[in-house]
Amino acid sequence: MSFVKNNKRYLYICLALPIALGLSYIEIDPHTFGFPFNLVLCLLCVYVSVLAGRLSEHFLFFSGRKVVGIAFITIVILMVLHWLFYHRRLFFCSFFPSVSYDFSKSALFVCLWMLFIIILGAVIVRRLTLVKQNNKWFLWNHMGLYLVLLTGFMGSTDTYTMQTILAKEQETNFAFTELGEAMKLPFHLILKDIQIQRDHTGLTIQYKAMVSLKDVQKEKTRSVAVNHPCRFKGYDIYVMQASDFGCKLQIIYDPWRYVILFSILIMISGAVVMFFKGTKIQKQDDRLG
């Protein structure tokens, strides 16, 4: 018993390593948790964050140092493991995952990311209950950060990046994901024309595609150029490649984009106000000193 008590930390590490390794081999398809399951998970995550913040008042397992330590360790582990698996060619044995492995979709990444979000939420709840003054902009900034991390992570389950190749006057209402899965679009896409501008040597300077977008109610003709996409029914359409006979289009569906942008604005506004308030307080302290 004394050996276990004296080496408790090392035993926890030895226990955590095989669990972490096992979770890293479990791949999770994020689209499995699409709407409405991601919304339920968001609410559950908020509830667990509030519960952890409340319990920390009684058991003190979320003290300041522990929170910073756990969050820092979590971030470092994610960064190191992501780098290792990104550079898979460093490994020369078949024990490690294949080239098709995506660490950001592993159960280990998901669990650690959710742990970090819950810890951040617990910090916000603890600050809200214990600190009563000069609290508004700190909470505003951290609530923005919390929403960015939570909605960005959960919103990825509803985000799709697709591609389609069209010849002139060809019509389609299907596009293909990175995995080759065919997805039906809520509109028809017709390539009307391709405009390619070349220099005197014949090299392409820029190109633009004229596409017709139509559904049951309306039909619109839009131009799509590099860095100038068009948006229709919540889908962003980009032109990736073009020739005299056809072009390759990228179609992105991201319904959470405005929620994430709003959360980013909350976070940035809180950080800016905290910066200027801190500068003002520092100047007042300098005058008194």
Concise description?
With 289 residues, the chain is of the alpha+beta class. It is 50% helix and 24% strand. The chain folds into two domains: 2-158 and 257-288, no CATH class; 160-253, no CATH class.
Count all strands and give the number: 8
N- to C-terminal separation?
A: 56 Å
Shape: extended
What's the number of helices? 7
Notable characteristics:
about 290 residues; alpha+beta; 2 domains; eight-stranded antiparallel beta sheet; 7 helices; about 50% helix; about 25% strand
Can you offer a commentary on this structure?
Helix 3 crosses helix 5 (107-130) and helix 4 runs antiparallel to helix 5. Helices cover 50% and strands 24% of the residues. An 8-stranded antiparallel beta sheet has the order 5-4-3-2-1-8-7-6, with no helix packed on it. 16% of the residues are buried. The N and C termini lie far apart (56 Å). It has 7 helices and 8 strands. It has helices at 2-6, 8-24, 37-59, 64-86, 107-130, 136-155, 257-288; strands at residues 160-167, 171-177, 182-198, 204-214, 219-225, 230-232, 235-242, 246-253. It is an alpha+beta fold. The protein folds into 2 domains: 2-158 and 257-288, no CATH class; 160-253, no CATH class.
